[in-house]
Specification:
Blueprint (H helix, E strand, L loop, with lengths): L3 H30 L2 H4 L12 E10 L2 E10 L2 E12 L2 E10 L8 E2 L2 E2 L8 E3 L8
């Protein structure tokens, strides 16, 4: 079984490749729908073709893991926490948390616990899916 870090690194590499491949298909879409003034800034709406990501922390327990990755976007560091679960002999991502934009990942806001992330520094950005 791969390590949680190897699994997330592989996921990020494949995701960046898919983004690179999607870019040429999005250009004509933007040309059809964007006004010329917005079209000059279309690059801002494109998926990034390169991603500078560093794995900062890996925590693993029985059958579960958490991997924090830091992605550099211009002058901003965006931290993402991937929650993993072992499924047979492979890992699967069961949740994705983003750095809290209010406390900027510190868990503290104005000298008290951040109410948005409940002091965790991360907010769950996954969709709640329930079986009916």
């Amino acid at each position: 079984m791969t390590t949680p870090q190897q699994f997330v690194e592989s996921f990020l590499k494949e995701k960046a490749k898919a983004w690179r491949e999607a870019r040429p298909y999005l250009k004509p879409v933007f040309s059809n729908y964007f006004d010329n003034s917005l079209l000059q800034h279309a690059e801002q709406f494109m998926p990034r073709d390169t991603v500078d990501t560093v794995i900062e922390d890996v925590t693993q327990t029985d059958g579960a893991a958490s991997v924090v990755a830091c992605e550099r976007i211009k002058a901003l560091d965006l931290r993402t926490r991937y929650r993993l679960e072992a499924k047979g002999d492979a890992w699967k991502i069961i949740g994705i948390d983003r750095m809290c934009v209010i406390c900027r990942g510190t868990g503290q806001f104005r000298n008290s616990k951040c109410e948005v992330c409940n002091g965790e520094g991360f907010c769950d950005c996954t969709v709640d899916v329930t079986d009916d």
